[in-house]
Amino acid sequence: MVADGADTLLGMSAPPQSSVAPAALVETSTLGRKLVRYFTGSLVATACSEVAFVLLYGPLAMGTAWASVLSWLAGAIPNFWLNRNWAWQRTGRPSLRREVAPYAAVVVVTLLLATLLTHLADRLLHQEGVASSLRVTLVAGVFLGTYVVVFAVRFFLLERLFTRLHLHEARQRHLHETRQRHLHETQQER
């Protein structure tokens, strides 16, 4: 049982005399839930991208650039919706300027890195005469590795993006409520 109504952090309660403020526990707990949801959504998106890449580059013998672009799309679209709606609990229609464009900028960098690195790996492995099946495995590993490396950076950037949006919307609601209250008070004075 948690004493004095202290909040919990991932199922663990803070001791009653803890130096950690309950608000900090709630914030950390919320961040932890976001991270778990982001990680899960990223796993789904990465699996979509990786399967698409292996199929396009391997059996369909598509070049690394097109395979990377199409595979990126196979993961980026579900990743946006999973991150936005599930990890950061955003609802309603997304703002093209405030949500979609910044998100696209973040993930396009991943696309560019994946395309460049898979192309370089493919070229190097071709020059070395590596067998086709091993080359597909290694280049697919480079593709996956790119996503793993930028995982933490993307979380930080998306957390910043969605937190700023939340604060902006809260300020807008406060301004609207203040104007409405002022308008109502002005009408009552008449």
Task: Please explain how this structure is put together.
This protein has helices spanning about 20-55, 65-85, 95-125, 130-190; strands at about 10, 10-15. It is mainly alpha-helical and about 190 residues long. It has one domain (about 20-190). It has a two-stranded antiparallel sheet with strand order 1-2. It is elongated, with a radius of gyration of 23 Å. Mean pLDDT is about 80; it is low at about 1-20.
Properties at a glance:
two-stranded antiparallel sheet, 190 residues, 4 helices, mainly alpha, 2 strands
Please give a quick description of this structure.
Helix content is 79%, strand content 2%.
Task: Give the count of helical stretches.
Answer: 4
Which term fits the overall shape?
elongated
User: Could you say how many structural domains there are in total?
Assistant: 1
Please report which band the strand proportion falls in: under 5%, 5-15%, 15-25%, 25-35%, 35-45% or over 45%.
under 5%
Number of strands: 2
Approximate helicity band: over 70%
Spatial strand arrangement across the major sheet: 1-2
Distance between the termini: 55 Å
| Sequence stretches where pLDDT stays below 50 over 5 or more residues | 1-21
Tell me, rounded to a whole number, the average pLDDT. Answer: 81
